[in-house]
Amino acid sequence: MDTTHERAIDQLKGKDRKQPRRPQLILDVGGVLAANLTDFWTSAASAAGMSYNELRARYKQELRTSLWTGELSEAAFWEWLAEACPLLQTEQAQAALQNCLKPLPALALLPRWHRIADIHILSNHRAEWLRPWLSQYRSYLTSLTISSEAGCCKPDPALYRLAAVQLLPGRNTLYVDDAERNLLPAAALGWRTLLADPEGHWVNQVEDLLACST
């Protein structure tokens, strides 16, 4: 005879079968939802009286990875910038950073996409900068995987595996990034990938790809 416990399990299974199998949409932030920090580095270099290429080269050589993995504290980053650009005031640089985090058109589409998919963030970023910026959209986001909290950064496959833990299994998954090198680890996990073009035409493909991704 069927027990009460067994009947409850059968009912739960029946409910699960009736649940829509919502696709999983994973989005980068820079170049996808927000402008990249190019303008920040340009304004910092200009205020410091040095070339953009010179400042960026030093940044990449000395602290890029440690900044995004969280090994370097935010305070230490501002100290480094003050040393690299003596003519640039820290308060001025911090204001420039906030001004450069400009929303791209895709950000306004999150409520629409949320109606058809679970949305996840996978970004090389500082949580101190990104979480406040995304706060008004947090209700549309299922998870946030941010490199400075995770201790690793793209294209390290470890960061993608951390994001994968947040996904519902067996669902169609689409990952969007503006850097082709960052798509490769996603593809290795079996995710469908989409390169975000600078013109933003990629947004027109998202819903179709979610519907047919495998």
From TrEMBL:
Gene3D superfamilies: HAD superfamily/HAD-like, Putative phosphatase, domain 2. InterPro entries: HAD-like_sf (IPR036412), HAD-SF_hydro_IA (IPR006439), HAD_sf (IPR023214), PGP-like_dom2 (IPR023198). Residues 1-20 are annotated as: Disordered. Residues 1-14 have a biased composition (Basic and acidic residues). PANTHER family: ALPHA-D-GLUCOSE 1-PHOSPHATE PHOSPHATASE, FLAVIN MONONUCLEOTIDE HYDROLASE 1, CHLOROPLATIC. This is Haloacid dehalogenase. It comes from Paenibacillus sambharensis.
